[in-house]
């Protein structure tokens, strides 16, 4: 279990870095360890889609769907794989069912719009896209609660005040530091602590 937890974190990091083939290898290793984990099969299919391996992605998305029939996000992944391989009708059917199960999911709505467009239903695609955009905006707006906005405003004010204070600090004097006791090297001779005049080239 510990190895799988580390594997999930590693795979997630590889996805963030868009290193699809390495993420695919990581998920492949994990599904071999836990072949009944639908989420792992689903994620394997997703990274394969990102990496352009649509045939393998479709097979693994079907495996995930078999393990978790009716799960809307998994159905969404299978639908995307079907769209990528040219089976628009099955994709459309899956996405309609997924939207009914998860009506607030904007990503499913977006994919539904793509499927409708692929099947020639332009008006339906536009309507689905507009609905998905409204849902996304509602989610974003919901994150901007008054407490969050107030905290952001305070932090921005603190940053501005600190920046102003830093700019107000007067420039310090130049300090020259050098070793005074070392073995003579060419023209470099030790002063043995005795002050002497130096010249500094300022560019």
What does this entry look like structurally?
By secondary structure, the chain is mostly helical. Helix content is 69%, strand content 0%. The protein has nine helices and no strands. Helix 5 runs antiparallel to helix 6. The longest helix has 23 residues, at 146-168. The mean pLDDT is 87.
The N- and C-terminal alpha carbons lie at a distance of 61 Å
- Measured as a percent range, the helix fraction is 55-70%
Q: What structural class do the secondary elements suggest?
A: mainly alpha
What is the CA-based Rg, rounded?
Answer: 30 Å
- Total helices: the number is 9
Determine the strand fraction and express it as a percent band. Answer: under 5%
Spans where pLDDT lies below 50 across 5 or more residues: none
**What is the N-to-C order of secondary-structure elements (H for helix, E for strand)?**
HHHHHHHHH
Number of E strands: 0
Mean pLDDT: 87
| Bulk shape | elongated
Report the major sheet.
Answer: none
List the helices and strands and how they pair.
Elements: H1 2-16, H2 20-33, H3 38-50, H4 54-67, H5 72-84, H6 88-101, H7 106-118, H8 122-143, H9 146-168
Helix pairs in contact: 1-2, 2-3, 3-4, 3-5, 4-5, 5-6, 5-7, 6-7, 7-8
């Amino acid at each position: 279990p510990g190895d799988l937890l580390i594997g999930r974190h590693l795979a997630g990091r590889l996805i963030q870095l868009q290193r699809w083939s390495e993420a695919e290898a990581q998920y492949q290793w994990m599904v071999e360890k836990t072949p009944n984990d639908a989420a792992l099969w689903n994620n394997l299919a997703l990274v394969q889609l990102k990496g352009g391996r649509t045939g393998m992605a479709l097979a693994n998305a079907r495996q995930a769907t078999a393990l978790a029939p009716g799960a809307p996000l998994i159905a969404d992944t299978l639908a995307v794989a079907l769209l990528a391989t040219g089976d628009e009708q099955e994709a459309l059917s899956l996405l309609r069912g997924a939207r009914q199960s998860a009506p607030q999911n904007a990503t499913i709505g977006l994919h539904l719009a793509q499927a409708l467009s692929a099947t020639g239903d332009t008006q339906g695609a536009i309507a689905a896209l507009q609905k998905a955009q409204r849902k996304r905006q509602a989610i974003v707006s919901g994150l901007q609660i008054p407490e969050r906005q107030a905290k952001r405003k305070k932090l921005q004010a603190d940053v501005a005040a600190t920046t102003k204070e830093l700019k107000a600090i007067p420039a310090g004097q130049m300090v020259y530091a050098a070793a005074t006791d070392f073995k003579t090297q060419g023209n470099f001779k030790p002063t043995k602590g005795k002050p002497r005049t130096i010249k500094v080239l300022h560019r």
